[in-house]
Amino acid sequence: MKRLKLKQKLTKQEREAVVDNAVKILGNNGLVIYPTETCYGIAADATSQEAIDKLLKYKSRREGKPLSIAVTDEKMAQKYAVINEVAHSIYENYLPGPITVVSKSKKTLAKGVSSEFNTVGIRVPDYELILEIIKKLGKPITATSANISYNPRPYNIDKYLKETPRKHMKLIDLIIDAGELQPNDPSTVVDTTLNNLNIMRQGRITLKKQTSQKDPVLQARTNSPQETVDFGGLNMLKFIDVPLEKPLVFLLSGELGAGKTQFSKGVARQLGIDRIVKSPTYNIMSEYDYDQGHRQGKLIHVDFWKLDTYEILRLGEVMTVGNVIIIEWADKFLDQMLEDFDNSNSKVIHVVYKSVARDKRSIKSYEMNDLSNSHVFSEK
Ligand code: ADP
Ligand code: MG
Predict the structure, then answer these.
(1) What does the DSSP assignment read for 85-112?
(2) Ligand 2 centre and the CA of 257: distance in Å?
(3) Does ligand 1 lie within 6 Å of residue 257's CB atom?
(4) Nearest atom within ligand 1 for CA of residue 262
């Protein structure tokens, strides 16, 4: 592993030497740690399977979470992803800058870069040296933070070296050390694949203001069953680390055929459950195990449609850390459930089908922060 300490001002030759060095290593499937306007990132050639496998080995245990990539501009992004109108306006108005735009990927990236749902997060870093490296390499690099999974984001190389086990460190070929970086927030991650803005992680830049707790945290107008599955996946991805601390509950409210089970399929798929989640209408409750490295537990899929008494299910007993619970026809026993939510300290997301017409569904997800005040229900 080589560590290149950057001086405040580099001469043209010195700069070129750094770029050449990094490009050579990346071209040979190596890993390079580099500074950005957020934190230190880690680069691998995003089109090389060998490089990506090495990166995933370095990061370890991040199953289910897609990587993001960095490109020089929108034109380069278009080679690897479908940039729709919504995404285009972000490229035009905000990039380069600390925003990761999620789009549908084309099949040109290595396996492990795109998500299970075939989407990819793309950044254009506001850091000239890195743009030069990408340009010279002629391929996108990964833009994930340089820490191994579940370690803090690195802003200082000495500190990073102390925190990172040797076994992982051995996989790094080059560190471009620009000293202590500004402790900026990470990039704002916005998903545009459903033709609107869904904020997956709020970072330094606010693209969309949530003016009241009554505003949905995610929403979509889906035009096909598949898009509703995708929206379910999006919901699960947004809250993917919640079950590490508390049970995660999705309450689904919508008429028969609204697409509640389609949504559930997306949640299951994001958890890596490949068995098909069917409507549990006739057996009321189904259980599936999931196991994604650090994240393990059960997906409990419940349908209240045919249920007469809430207590008989003893739902409170499965509201435990690790578990994700989806409830179709949630309105039916809401009052009884509130106590179980409170006792289990569950995080509750209420998914409401606002309008349903032929193949179109308008779906909004609300965070229920204050359970005793379930304004979301009265709002409908
Ligand atoms: P629920 O569980 O709410 O009763 P399902 O998910 O079982 O509903 O069924 C929804 C039905 O509607 C399926 O047959 C699906 O093919 C159809 N459908 C058509 N358009 C959509 C859409 N945009 N989203 C979800 N389902 C859709
Ligand atoms: Mg159903």
Answers:
(1) HHHHHHHHHH-SEEEEEEEEEPTTSPTT
(2) 7
(3) yes
(4) 6
With b for 16 or more beta-carbon neighbours within 10 A and e for fewer, the 250-268 pattern comes to: bbbbbeeebbbbbbbbbbb
Structure tokens at 243: 């079950």
CA dihedral 141, 143, 149, 155 (to 10 degrees): 120
The closest residue, in CA terms, to atom 20 on ligand 1 is 359
pTM assigned to the model: 0.93
Supply the residue whose CA is at minimum distance from atom 27 of ligand 1: 225
- Determine the Cα–Cα distance for residues 112 and 166; give it in Å rounded to an integer: 24
Give yes or no for residue 256 CB within 6 A of ligand 1.
Answer: yes
Closest CA relative to residue 267, chosen from 311, 306, 218: 218
Residue 308 and residue 284 in contact, taking contact as beta carbons nearer than 8 Å: no
**CA gap 355, 326 in Å, rounded:** 20
Query: Which structure tokens are listed for 218?
Result: 């995610």
Distance CA 92, CA 326 (A): 38
Q: Residues 243-299: pLDDT tens digits?
A: 999 999 999 999 999 999 999 999 999 999 987 777 766 678 999 999 998 899 999
Burial (CB count within 10 angstroms: exposed 0-12, middle 13-18, buried 19+), residue 92: exposed
